[in-house]
Request: fold
Amino acid sequence: MADLKYYDIILKPIVTEKSMDSMSDKKYTFSVHPDATKSQIKEAVEKMFAGTKVAKVNTMNLEGKNRRRGNVVGKTSKSKKAIVQLTADSTEIEIFSGL
Reply:
């Protein structure tokens, strides 16, 4: 397993209609490093966004899709998605506030 720092774990936020609806329940969805664990994701969110406290983390491993270009068949890279539930007394995450 690679030596991951907290700024390497969270790659980007995932902004979909379903993830935007769950933000009212203080659930935020991120694309994370495939080797990251739940405790590392929790630590990264609490360090990157000041005033946040994570209640729980749910993760999903997404396998790569089969893609074909002409006669050549390949796969896209696999990824990992994390849904982070914040506590009730935690502050909102700023990057989602303008959406």
Notes: The chain has a mean pLDDT of 91. Strands lie at 10-13, 27-32, 54-62, 66-69, 72-75, 79-86. The longest helix spans residues 38-48. The chain has one domain: 6-65+78-89.
